[in-house]
Write a structure and sequence with these properties.
With 516 residues, this protein is of the alpha/beta class. It is built from 14 helices and 23 strands. The strands form 7 sheets. A 5-stranded mixed sheet has the order 4-7-8-6-5. A 3-stranded mixed sheet has the order 2-1-3. It has a 3-stranded mixed sheet with strand order 10-9-23. The N and C termini lie far apart (54 Å).
Length: 516
Amino acid sequence: MDFSFSDSSNKIVKFHIEQGSKWNDIKTNNPALDSIFNKVRGQDEVVTQKHIKVLENLINIGDKQTDVSDNNQILSHTEANKINELISNKDKSRIIDTSKGETLQNYSYIDIMEINKDLAFAAKYNVDASSVDTSNLAPGKYYMDTQKVKETKNGDLNESIEPLKMQDKADNPTNNWSEGINREIRTIKLADIDTENMQTIENELRYIGMELGFNVQRVHSGDVWIEDYTIRRADKKVYVQQQTSGEFISRKEKLDIITSRHDISTSGMAAAAVDGKSKDYAKTVLPEEQVKSETYLEGGNVLNTLKSDGTPGAVIGEESIGYTLKSMNLENTPENVEIAKNKIAQDLGLKPGDVTYVPQIDFHIDMFYHPLGDGEMAVPDYDAGIEMLKQGNIKSMDEATRQNMIKKLEELKSKADPILKKAENNLSKSGYKIVKIPCFSVPNDYTVPKINFMNSVGGTSKKAGTFLITNKSDYPELNDAVANVYKKNGIKNVYFVSTEPLLQKGGGIDCLTQEI
């Protein structure tokens, strides 16, 4: 690559840079250009083809596409300084507080985008804020997200923006750390997507909220499964994934991680956090609340708990360890497993001894386990579920369905017993009291109704006492029977919501919601 620039004494210098050169040997006597080189190289020691492509883009932008360009095929001091300014502008805050009368002005920035390990390019963006009428926005903080990008004749990219409402903080972190019943819920958040029966679910939650004292808030999201995108830490900050699953793990590697349940389910984690959806959702989380992760966790595979002494803990599906090893580029060795566990605890703001790992029946543990009171964990009881069906009291279920359900549950029980026994043993060793709840969930089998009473949202209302919101089945007698089991275990109020279409896709009410 050859180009010309003016050095610190305004002398025109012809410069050559080639692939394989050592960055430490490259000096230009132009501070702005040296700064650009440092930003392009990152931590790399030698020049790569990717670096050269980015530099070609940057020099072209400086000489032809900035407001100080002279198009003389020489990079001047002024043009190099402008490139530096535009690269820095990428990190300019897009958050405005309308309650303080703040508005976003038009500005430009350069983004260096890595396509893969061998390919990257740089482009100049012009942000157009003229379409945003802040006078129509309710008071609060907003993130200005990209709405549309259009290329101009000179190669610039014009970017129009739209406001996304930033999410509220949880003012009492300990109270809202646990997902059990010993917390007060002020707000239940749902994705701002009106598909998959979401409007019905919102209406039902609003009705329940009137009785219990919480409100329902819609938040920006690329998918309905917002539980998976972030995890609230005990210090009120929010764990945010830095990679999507597709960036570090293949389908084969997922199958290697889940060998213990291949005969039950081959569904792996990360179905909801692909395609950058988790990163997109994180834009609505206040920057000061975010904790950037090195590990890979999804909310559905992490259950925040309060232990019997009231201190924060967590129960995590053990497959998260395998995903974290992959995300941190570590081999699966005993030493590295301990490194991963320690890092997981650190990312959650916990001590390693406060984290309990359990083997999984399916892709996420929140489909089969749920915290109740402090130091209590609801676990699936297939024997109790089978017995309920055998008693024949579920009159709304036809006989063929009932017999098929019994058969499928008995088959699953024989496969799942070793997994459940190990999980209960791990929970007991960590001091959790086991609370068995009749279970009717059969993963990856669509010949039986999708029924799940474990995936739930719980708390304590000042108005009505303890409560649990779970998934409604098509069988009222079954709903009532399971509600009575929960009530015998300290849950005063049990509610059922219409999540049937989502259960068909593998998730329930807890997967659809976040609570503060």
